[in-house]
Amino acid sequence: xxxxxxLYYKILNIPKDTSPQxxxxxxxxLVKKWHPDKHPPSSKPEAEARFKAISEAYEALLDQQENRxxxxxxxxxxxxxxxxxxxxCGGGGGGGxxxxxxxxxxxxRSDDFCxxxxxxxxxxxxxxxxxxxxxxxxxxxxxxxxxxxxxxxPLERKLECTLEELCRGGKKEVKFTRDVVxxxxxxxKKEVSQTVTVKPGxxxxxxxxxxxxxxxRPGCLPADAIFTVSEKKHLTFKRVGNDLVxxxxxxxxSALTGWSFSFRLLSGKKVSLAFQDEVICxxxxxxxxxEGMPIPEHKGARGDLRVKFEIVFPKELTDEQRAGLAEILKxxx
Length: 333
Known about the structure:
single chain; alpha+beta; 3-stranded mixed β-sheet
């Protein structure tokens, strides 16, 4: 019974028809990436597990390639020996004996070749035990493959950010508690902290992943810690995509006779708007280009600031005021 090659191809992230040269190249790239000495203590357990899995997969696939070559040679030899045996038996009628000798010769040649071409290594010995039909070997491989493929469920948390932080960017320290497996196999709680570099323009729903920094479980790879950006409500602005929306309430008299006001953007920049020669109508919107949120995909680009005006009408008027307004506004529409 052979090892399941699908597992090894999946570990090395290569298709099944990969050549030996491509297998070797994939192996070299992965061991460089996951060598434990290149990882900090926080991700070292995961790196060690992956490094071991990559090495096992590489050696197993090499064995598979060697075996194909061996079987091809043995089949060629077997065909030649059978031909020789058949010719000999045809002369003396000892076909059964000749075939038996031929078979023994084939097995001897095959075994010797395999011994020479596949020297003993931990991975090859592991495969030998498993392939022999030993139940302990099968169980060991099952545990090994399961531990490679399984990862503890992710530890998920929110990363609350203000609009100012999402606009300007910056660093935020996050603290969380994770389960850690001790040397004796017990699970303890450990408080850890990580630094998140918030990039200008990030949106809610953006995920920050710390690989291997989640909960640990015996027999599993350490889980990832995933922080999902959430946006705190702002008192002045509302974000709509890459744009910022500002609602401004304008008294009716100011909307009709002229109005000016000022405010500060998320960056701290002061902006003033004046409406002296125009009437502000209900639903009017003024767009200030390039004063919205940064757009991460396009360096230097920003959304727009949209100022929406809401006209505040008086709740009641006296008869005299009504008459005066009627006289003033007569013929203006």
